[in-house]
Specification:
Blueprint: H1 2-16, H2 30-41, H3 55-67, H4 78-95, E1 97-99, H5 106-113, H6 117-124, E2 137-139, H7 144-148, H8 176-182, E3 187-189, E4 196-198, E5 204-212, H9 217-227, E6 233-236, H10 238-243, H11 245-253, E7 257-260, H12 273-291, E8 297-298, H13 307-315, E9 319-320, H14 336-345, E10 351-356, H15 362-375, E11 379-381, H16 383-386
Parallel strand pairs: 5-6, 5-10, 5-11, 6-7, 8-9
Antiparallel strand pairs: 1-2, 3-4
Length: 387
């Protein structure tokens, strides 16, 4: 009898198990991570940022929808998503803070908020503008406590001096150029009219080039640099070095600095450490074999950077270097004259300019830019000389 019961129990289990649906694996979503982050920043959500639209997330969405007069269904559709984004951006503007995301550069953040990189460094106590980490909070406006520490200029005297000043001996009137150069705040006006660049006497500016070498465009750039007796820094792609070895050797022979720009110019963020190291090592090997130089500087493709990429670069003996986003790049449709003028007006001591070595218009832009910078008194240096 007991054996009969066991048999019936086994048969029942075998019958009932196929009827039970298997437990599905919980799938994470980057979109859910995004709106969970917004909800948390806005104070509606207190759960983990896990990318899973669970009960806590749904409850937070319904609460947000109710406060905004939206349909309360717990679903993040287009209207709810747009309202969340707007509310989050409004809060960040009010807080004057920005949370760093993967791929952000300090120059890009500065350009987004219309401030200088040097100001962001000062307000946030950042010593190295090239190293910021995802999740880091960046103040995008001068904190009140910093503003209070600024020296207040002394007021001008309200009354004339008791005795008239002694007139200097008569001398020939100075030319407008001499008058401008005698004033520490003089500015150079560009030939096109209203634009102007600051006094750059003694200022160091480094012009860098990504995505080379190119058999035609890079050659024209080298001609312009030679004509102005200037040196630049070229971040070369290993694959292109193997395709255009003569141009790579010409860059090295002219005394320009060479940096590592990855082997295949593919995104490195999110890849395993071993894969990134292999890519950078392949680029190092290609450059060393063709030019005899071993780069010490690295610039990630597209400027996208994470901690793993930075670690891989360090393990290859490379220092990661970005550039200053000046609010204008050669990705814009500007003509060479307008582009060079726009860049020149934004240069200061220590500015790193980034152009592309594989674009036909770059040579003309470089020629005009070098004329403008030299006319303002700037010293053109390589990145190593700048740092």
């Amino acid at each position: 009898m007991r054996r009969c019961c066991y048999i019936w129990l086994v048969l029942f289990v075998l019958w009932i198990c196929p009827q039970v649906s298997p437990v599905k694996a919980v799938r994470q979503s980057s979109a859910v991570v995004q709106y969970q982050t917004w909800l948390k920043d806005l104070g509606f959500y207190r759960g983990p940022i896990d990318g899973v639209a669970g009960p806590l997330t749904s409850k937070a969405v319904r609460t947000f929808q109710k406060t905004k007069g939206l349909q309360v269904d717990g679903v993040v559709g287009p209207r709810t998503l747009a309202a969340l984004r707007k509310a989050w951006e409004d809060k960040k503007r009010a807080d004057n803070t920005y949370t760093v995301r993967k791929g952000d550069t300090l120059g890009g953040i500065a350009n987004r908020f219309g401030v200088a990189v040097s100001d962001l460094c000062r307000w946030n106590g950042i010593r190295d503008a090239d190293l910021i980490r995802p999740g880091q909070k960046i103040k995008t406006k001068e904190p009140p406590e910093v503003a209070k520490k600024k020296p207040v200029p002394a007021p001008l005297p309200s009354a004339a001096p008791a005795s008239p000043p002694i007139s200097p001996p008569a001398s020939p009137p100075a030319s407008p150029d001499d008058q401008a150069r005698s004033d520490p705040a003089w500015e150079c006006f560009l030939p096109s009219g209203g634009e102007r660049i600051p006094n750059l006497r003694g200022a160091r500016v480094a012009i860098t080039f990504n995505d080379g070498p190119d058999t035609q465009a890079t050659g024209a750039i080298l001609d312009m640099l030679a004509r102005h007796e200037a040196r630049g820094t070229f971040f070369l792609i290993g694959e292109k070095v193997n395709q255009a070895p003569d141009m790579a050797r010409r860059i090295a022979a002219a005394g320009h600095e060479i940096g590592n720009h990855s082997y295949g110019h593919k995104p490195l963020v999110g890849k395993p450490l071993a894969d990134i190291e292999g890519d950078l090592a392949a680029c190092q090997g290609a450059i060393r074999t063709v030019t005899g130089h071993s780069p010490v500087l690295f610039r990630p493709p597209g400027g996208a950077m994470d901690e793993t990429t930075n670690l891989a670069a360090r393990r290859q003996g490379l220092q990661t270097v970005f550039w200053h986003n000046l609010g204008v790049t050669d990705d814009s449709p500007l003509a060479p004259e307008a582009l060079a003028s726009a860049i020149a007006t934004r240069c200061r001591d220590g500015t790193i300019v980034m152009l592309h070595a594989d674009r036909p218009q770059t040579a003309a832009t470089v020629s005009i830019l070098l004329d403008l910078l030299k006319g303002a008194g700037a010293h053109l240096v390589t990145l190593s000389e700048l740092r």
